[in-house]
Amino acid sequence: MEKNASIVAVPGFGFYPAEFWNPLFKGLAESEGGNIPDSDICDMLEDLWEQGMVPGSPRGDNNTIITCKPYWDTVTCIPGTNAGSTAVLPCMKEYEGRQFYTSHNITRECLSNGTWAATTDYTACLDHLVPTPDPCMMESSLCREDHELYIYILGYTVSMVALVLAIFIFLYFKEMRCLRHKIHTNLFVSLLTSNLCWILIAVIQHVSLSSNLESLSSTYCSSHVPLRYFHLSNFFWMFVEGLYLFLQVEASFSFGSIKLRHCLLLGWGVPLVITLVWTILVYCQSEFIPRSLDAQVGLAGEDENLESLNSSLLVNCPYTTADWKLELLAYNIPVFLLLACNTVFLVWIMAVVISKLRISQGAAVNAHFHLRAAKALVVIVPLLGITYLIMIVGPREPDDLFSQIFIYTRSILLSFQGFFITLPYCFLNSEVCNTIKVHWDRWKTTRDVGTAQQSTRNSVVTAGFITVCDNISRSRAYTYHTVRNSIAERRGLEEVKGRDPSGLPGDNDSPYINGNSENKEVETKFNN
């Protein structure tokens, strides 16, 4: 009993005597609250096993005994054991956010040739998960993330509706098909696709975690690639917007050399190349590096139980856990450079706008002047993506009031960005409003909207018939009286006094025969 009482059950490592484990490793592993990775502890156990210092390891004359050394299988450290036996160790306390009962065991067989079997049996651990309590019931401050998620969903939804309407307006009306509006349209499309991808990923993640479907897990992982592309294209189209404004203000005479194809290449082509390179590098890193490590330790194949463990918990997606160096080169540096250029454009454009406002208002610099300058700044800032630069650094303490205000403000600014951009550049733009008003008035005129309750078709036909008849009547009167004037001149005014021999009424009754220059001008026009 004393011997059994001295055995320590170490979750994720095995059963070791207390006099061996406590002096060397107690409290050092990360799983026990220490600062040494569990894999490093396992490497130390392997070295001690080879030196014969671990209980159960061959020592002295027993070196000829075939054993399996302690082995790290990327989740737990399988303890060493003799060939032909099975290693047993307690379940780990936690893995990928899930808790396990340590009273159940993990097993892996050591083959007769001294190599480990291809699979580790985690069945007992997976069948006995610790129920996860609702974090909101334990601490209400943890529910802040849910509120932030709701803000993002609401903001992206409102932005998507506004972006769809703005894109329809720019594509439907031919007056809106200039280069400036085409650039706006492409920016709206990139924002729309980015918001749509974000919402789809959020839905897929929620369904995947609640149902543990492997197909949804793979879809969730692969959907981060188009999200990265469209999100990166947002910044490039914001840069195109800033470059367009800068050239329009400073280099308007050479602006004709810039074509739409140049903007398309910069806004869609460059982020596509960066995303493809990033995707290939991340995929190669996740596929080939683990296989080379497995080859070094002599694994016969992939660990099926480990795969089931990973798939049953949170998804191990390489695109969400990529190396920070790849993230720095393929995302952070390009975005930072684009935002820095847009900041320079913003300062330059605002300087030009303020100088022109000063010139137009003369020496009278009043509150109205500052209001117009502030209005120009508010209109340009969301278009150039300066809000991302403002929110790039946040507070480190998430529990204080300032941090909560910052988090909610950032959520509102970033999620409603599409809606904020469409207001000054589409829905409140005077050119767009005038175009819509002209088409609406034209539609009302052609269909007689708001007038008599007769049918539109009859009103148009009647109006045309009256116009034609009126023109015919005027032409006949003009011809008749001009001919009468010619007859009067040829026969003399004495012959036509009273009644004409031709039976026509008297010329004194006609206003066209007065013998003045006005009648002669009418006659000349008719004869010609």
Structure overview:
- The protein is mainly α and 528 residues long.
- It is 62% helix and 6% strand.
- It has a two-stranded antiparallel ribbon with strand order 1-2. Strands 3-6 form a two-stranded antiparallel ribbon. Strands 4-5 form a two-stranded antiparallel sheet.
- β4 and β5 form a beta hairpin.
- α6 (144-172) packs antiparallel against α7 and α6 runs parallel beside α16 (417-427).
- The radius of gyration is 42 Å and the shape is elongated.
What order do the strands of the largest sheet run in, or round the barrel if closed?
1-2
| pLDDT < 50 stretches | 1-5, 290-315, 452-484, 486-528
Give the radius of gyration.
Answer: 42 Å
Gap between N and C termini:
135 Å
Summed up, the helix count is 19
Strand content: 5-15%
**Basic shape:** elongated
Derived from helix and strand composition plus strand pairing, the structural class reads mainly alpha
Topology as a string of helices (H) and strands (E): HEEHHEEEEEEEEHHHHHHHHHHHHHHHH
Helices and strands in order:
Layout: H1 2-5, E1 7-10, E2 14-17, H2 18-25, H3 38-50, E3 67-68, E4 71-72, E5 77-78, E6 81-82, E7 86-90, E8 94-95, E9 98-99, E10 105-109, H4 123-126, H5 135-138, H6 144-172, H7 179-211, H8 214-222, H9 224-250, H10 260-297, H11 304-312, H12 324-361, H13 367-384, H14 386-390, H15 401-415, H16 417-427, H17 430-447, H18 456-491, H19 517-527
Antiparallel strand pairs: 1-2, 3-6, 4-5, 7-10, 8-9
